[in-house]
Amino acid sequence: MKACGGAYSPQTRRKHFISGPQWAAGYRGDALFYAPTRQAIGFEEIIRRYGELGVGYWCTHDSDVIVTEALGKEEQWGVIERIKTALKENGVQCSMISTETFHHAVWATSPASEAPEVREYAKFRLKNMVKLGHELGAQFAVYWPGSLGYYVQGAVEETNTLRWYAEGLNAACQADIEIAQHRGAPTLKHCLEAKPFEPQAEILLPTTDAMLGFINSGLLTHPEMVGVNPEYLHELMWGAAPRAALARALLCGKLWHFDINDGYRLKHDVDIAIGLVNPLDWLNVLVLLRSHGYQGPFNLDFKPPRTTSNSGVWEVSFPTAVDRFITLWEMAGEVISDPVIQEATQALNAGGGAADPHDAEAVTAGYRELLTLHELIAHRLVQILLGLHRGRTYSV
Ligand code: GLC
Ligand code: MN
Ligand code: MN
Predict the structure, then answer these.
(1) 98 lines ligand 1 (CB under 6 A)
(2) Could you tell me which of 37, 58, 54, 56 has the C-alpha nearest to residue 46?
(3) Which one, 58, 154, 220, 371, has least CB within 10 Å?
(4) How far is the CA of 300 from the centre of ligand 2 (A)?
(5) Distance between CA atoms of residues 60 and 198, nearest Å
(6) Residue-wise pLDDT tens for the chain (396 aa)?
(7) Atom 7 in ligand 1: which residue has the minimum CA distance?
(8) Residue 381 CB partners (closer than 8 Å, separation 6+)
(9) Under a CB-based contact definition with an 8 Å cutoff, are residues 298 and 351 in contact?
(10) Ligand closest in space to the Cα of 269
């Protein structure tokens, strides 16, 4: 790492709204075909390490820190006190909380199961999550529905399932309104996260666009409290242009939270750290968000690879992910103020000025040369990514 150089200081890292998930740092490298490769670590160490690195925000699923059996019971508050102490001691804030509605056997038919008692249990967990979120000072709640879908066809009636899923969210929003009023605090921002495949074969809300449609379906009693948490890789997985998916959420005023990571199109959810696969696309994503004044969290929802050791998680994985994000963010600023890109964009926006805008030939001819600027802009973006715009050369 010393040989690599170029690291940002913890103070600089703390200037960004970057959050570190409990589950990302706690991931032990296990998966369907994989045994764990790392030792377990608890929230006290994770929060301390994030604080030392300059990751100023932490987030968690309820069951990452409190055993399922204790959730909603008196004993959960002892853990919450320990979390609050760890956060305070390390200058870290809790930004977001999520209900785990995918791992435990109770969710085999999703939180919107046909069985009313499963749905009742889901409401209990969601309302409890809201309570925990307020107690920890979180601003956001994230919902990844996980098993909302099916393996075999015909057994699940989609419209019922979606109605039942909405009931859970409605219960969470209602509880939030009451708790917020009682505490004199603002309500949480409730953010839906989509994933196109895994853990079910067919997913009922597979994309951020599907989530936006769901928010506006009329099923939610408080659609104004609900936005989206797109994950970069989850959009790429189904073959989307993540930047276009983000643009659509921005236009709806619903882009409130963003999971940052990387990976490949049409593959499973590899959760690689930001910028290791698609740095150019990431630069463009951050140009869009910077130019639209996105103020929400950048959540490090990646998984350190199995090949990385316990110490490597802290010495390499997290600091390099944070630093690539900051560099790309700074580069995005350079793109926005780059004189070549500005001039090219202005020329494109000014148009070719055809004498007769109803004459196809004249319109085409007037704009023909200008369109070459698309490729010039793309070249300039690569120059900025590679540092060539600052005079870096490869001729020797
Ligand atoms: C799970 C998902 C992750 C999501 C998180 C939030 O860990 O894998 O993508 O962001 O839940 O609920
Ligand atoms: Mn995610
Ligand atoms: Mn993912």
Answers:
(1) yes
(2) 58
(3) 154
(4) 9
(5) 20
(6) 999 998 999 999 999 999 999 999 999 999 999 999 999 999 999 999 999 999 999 999 999 999 999 999 999 999 999 999 999 999 999 999 999 999 999 999 999 999 999 999 999 999 999 999 999 999 999 999 999 999 999 999 999 999 999 999 999 999 999 999 999 999 999 999 999 998 999 999 999 999 999 999 999 999 999 999 999 999 999 999 999 999 999 999 999 999 999 999 999 999 999 999 999 999 999 999 999 999 999 999 999 999 999 999 999 999 999 999 999 999 999 999 999 999 999 999 999 987 799 999 999 999 999 999 999 999 999 999 999 999 888 876
(7) 23
(8) 280, 283, 284, 335, 341
(9) no
(10) 3
Distance 99 CA to ligand 2 centre (A): 13
Q: What is the DSSP string of 371-385?
A: GGHHHHHHHHHHHHH
CA distances from 254 to 239, 262, 295, 303 (A): 21, 22, 12, 26
Residue with structure tokens 């580069």? 331
259 lines ligand 1 (CB under 6 A): yes
Conformation bin of residue 27: beta by default, left when phi > 0, alpha when psi is -120 to 50: beta
Ligand 3 centroid distance, CA of 275 (Å): 15
What number of residues does the chain have? 396
* Residue 27 Cβ < 6 Å to ligand 1: no
CA-CA distance, 136 to 118, in Å (whole number)? Answer: 27
Distance, CA 332 to ligand 3 centroid (Å)? Answer: 24
- Out of 64, 103, 222, 281, pick the active-site residue: 64
d(CA 62, CA 239): 31
299: phi then psi, degrees, rounded to nearest 5: -100, 120
List all residues 6 or more positions away from 112 whose beta carbon is below 8 Å from its beta carbon: 119, 122, 145, 148, 161, 162, 164, 165, 167, 168
Instruction: Report whether residue 193 contacts ligand 1, using a CB cutoff of 6 Å.
Output: yes
CA distance 132 to 98: 10
Which residue puts its alpha carbon closest to atom 2 of ligand 1? Answer: 144
Q: How many CA atoms lie within 13 A of 78 on its CB side?
A: 5
**Hey, how many other C-beta atoms are within 10 angstroms of the C-beta on 204?**
21
